[in-house]
Amino acid sequence: MELRTYTDLWRMDRRIYAIQDVTLPIPVGMTQLGAAALGALVWLPIAFAIGLTDLVGGAGEYATGLSAILLAGPPIAIGWATGRPLVEGRTIGQHLAAAARYQLLPPLLVRLSVPDRVPTSQRLHALIWTPRTKDEPT
Questions:
Q1: In this predicted structure, what is the pLDDT of residue 57?
Q2: What is the separation of C-alpha 5 from the centre of its chain, rounded to a whole number of angstroms?
Q3: How far apart are CA 116 and CA 111, in angstroms?
Q4: Which three-class secondary structure state does DSSP give residue 133?
């Protein structure tokens, strides 16, 4: 059983169930939508630069559908993969956010760092305790 705390309720992923009057087949999270949009911004110029739609050829209806799949497929796949849990039930976006937070925060364990100059030798002063014998006065 997973017990959600009060702060976890505010961090829950908001989902879109419909756009205008069109109901989506699955709910889409905001991180998935953002990842798909970012993937489209990267993928579409690359696809047009290498002439991916020209590789399909023809002007028939099948060629147009295949071109649409080649252009829209990778951004949709990126958005879908962003919402899938990986290790420890965390999604790719949560892993990336944790990695960015780790890189951007200052180190917290400053007191455990090695000093700049390590001494080459050290002196040790110690007293050695020896028990009294019966002959010694108290």
A1: 63
A2: 22
A3: 13
A4: coil
pLDDT at 114: 65
| Per-10-residue mean pLDDT, the chain, length 138 | 65 77 83 91 91 68 73 90 85 86 77 68 87 74
Print burial letters for 14-24: b (CB count within 10 Å at least 16), e (below 16). Answer: eeeeeeeeeee
Q: Quote the pLDDT of residue 59.
A: 56
The span from the CA of 78 to the CA of 72, in Å, is: 10
Q: Any bridge partners for residue 23, and if so which?
A: 18
Q: What is the pLDDT of residue 113?
A: 63
CA gap 74, 35 in Å, rounded: 11
Phi-psi bin for 89: left (phi > 0), alpha (psi -120 to 50), beta?
A: left
- Bridge partners of 91, per DSSP, are 85
Question: Using CB atoms within 10 A of its CB, is residue 82 exposed (0-12), middle (13-18) or buried (19+)?
Answer: buried
| Interatomic CA distance for residues 75 and 110, integer angstroms | 42
CA dist., res. 27 & res. 17, Å (int): 5
Given CA atoms 41, 42, 48, 49 in this order, what sign does their dihedral have? Answer: positive
Q: Are 83 and 32 in contact (CB under 8 A)?
A: yes
